[in-house]
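Before a colleague's protein record goes any further, I have to sign it off. Alongside the sequence sits a line of tokens, each denoting a local backbone shape. I want your independent view on whether this chain really folds as the tokens say. Where you disagree with what is written, explain briefly why. This is what I was given:
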Amino acid sequence: MRPLSGNSCRTPPARPPSGGPPCLTSRQLARLEEAFDAWAKRTARADIASSRRRVRLIFLLIRHTGARLREVLGLDLGGDLDPGRGVVRFRKGRGGRGLPREVRIPAEVAAEAAAWFRAQPPGRPGAGALALDPAHVRRKFYERAREVGLPAALGAPEAVRRARALELVRENVPLPVVQRVLGQATPEGAAAYVRFSEADLRRAEAFYLERSRRRTTSARNAFYGKVAAIRLGDVQAGVGIALPSGELLHAVITRESLERLGLTPGGWVAAEVKAPWLALVADGRGDRTSADNVIAGRVRRIRRGTLTAEVVTRTEAGIELCAVITRERLDRLGLRRGQAVHVAFSAFAVILHEA
């Protein structure tokens, strides 16, 4: 079985990954945002204040959508912002042709964008356009980075976009949802079970982002997908759940629960597996387990307690799963950071909830 998406037990401290391009931490993003806010207020001239607010808004939109600079500069808030739903629409194709990509933004950012639009002179063509010279915008981004003691490269729009992508991955948002948010091509793995439309991926995005805003320390692994198949038994039912990241999760519930949840093929369902119900299998033995769900990954981190240990495994897709095992089991497996393992759990361990 290919990697499943889930929820980690502990949220790791944000830090640039080893190797690869430099990346902003969440704290550095917050410092940049504060710098843009202070800069926008450091003038008494209304025209300069409006221009600075526009650049600050461009930063906020890249920071919270992960969009490319040219995409944000192509926005017209008169038609591309829906403050009531809290989304912005990025047009696909040249000349705005093609289906738009909707991305959710925080309510406060949507309100600020709407306020900026209302403050523009009425009746002026393109009053809601964010269009500015990209070189000018980049210079202002670099200046704010240097103001807070960061290298100019970390203030580049691309660095802010990359940091948003990593935030989503660390929040265990499935990779296809992250790719949709960023406007990248998504894999077709899920199509083998259930086709996920643009609206489906928007719904999954809303679920995972809302969960990440509400999440506190948790020992549960959460999933969200569409019912791919139902097999009825006398008392129980087997449910196959296609995840946006292209995998199939197997669950077994009672017929009564099936009816209570109103599950039907193509419908949405939320699922969770508690961390103590996840078993870890040493690499090379994953095909020997009889578990219904087996996921390959590598040990990301280990938190040892007196009797138990929390082991977080990261899949190839960058999704983390948290297991709680005994110290005895941990020592017997000889687990270490970076080691290849399989995470296994029974279909009976999957708890389904109404989506």
